[in-house]
Design goal:
By secondary structure, the chain is mainly alpha-helical. It has one domain. 69% of the residues lie in helices and 0% in strands. The protein has eight helices and no strands. Helix 4 runs antiparallel to helix 5. The longest helix has 67 residues. Pfam families: DUF2062. It comes from Denitromonas iodatirespirans. InterPro entries: DUF2062 (IPR018639).
Length: 188
């Protein structure tokens, strides 16, 4: 699993040599942000899934800050935020609103988001912000509940998948050793 993930993640040297990241080198070059093991991968996925529900372009910034705080793998956390996109964000926010409304017992009805047609990007973003703030407390509670649920699920799913992979590899090595031992015993 580690070899598979390493093919897609940048190495320590590429970050060290990047001129745009030089001001942040002391923080971003901490070894635990680039180390890949069961703990750092599970924590990175949890941070990424949690921060993926942050609105707008602040998802990756939130994930990077979370990685610095929890000392988990930075590239994996950044990639993990990409589950939210223009196609998935509205259903996720609708789910969060529904969860929050059920939890706080608001009893209000869901109002669909503003349509993009006929508006400039600035007008639409203003209307979208007004729509989100109009949803208020149930959305906030639902987002926190959904983010925590996704983070916990992601954390334990990665831990379980990593363990499954290790047990499978360990058993394959055992079978290979047993076959080599049997081959050696019959060939002698």
């Amino acid at each position: 699993m580690r070899k598979f993930l390493r093919r897609f993640l940048p190495d320590h040297a590429s970050v060290h040599n990047n001129r745009w990241l030089r001001p942040l080198q002391s923080t971003l070059l901490h070894p635990s942000l680039w180390h890949l093991n069961r703990h750092s991968a599970a924590g990175a996925v949890a941070v990424g899934l949690y921060c993926g529900l942050i609105p707008g372009p602040f998802q990756m910034l939130g994930a990077a800050l979370g990685c610095v705080v929890f000392r988990v793998n930075l590239p994996l956390a950044l990639v993990s935020t990409l589950y939210t996109n223009p196609f998935t964000i509205v259903p996720l926010y609708f789910l969060a609103y529904t969860l929050g409304n059920a939890l706080v017992g608001g009893g209000s009805t869901f109002v669909p988001p503003p349509e993009f047609g006929g508006m400039s990007m600035g007008e639409w973003l203003t209307a979208l912000t007004a729509w989100i703030t109009g949803l208020g407390y149930p959305l906030l509670v639902g987002l926190l509940l959904l983010a925590n649920g996704l983070a916990l699920t992601g954390y334990f799913a990665v831990r379980a998948a990593w363990r499954w992979y290790l047990v499978r590899a360990w058993r394959a090595r055992q079978r290979k050793r047993a076959a080599a031992k049997d081959k050696g015993a019959t060939g002698a």
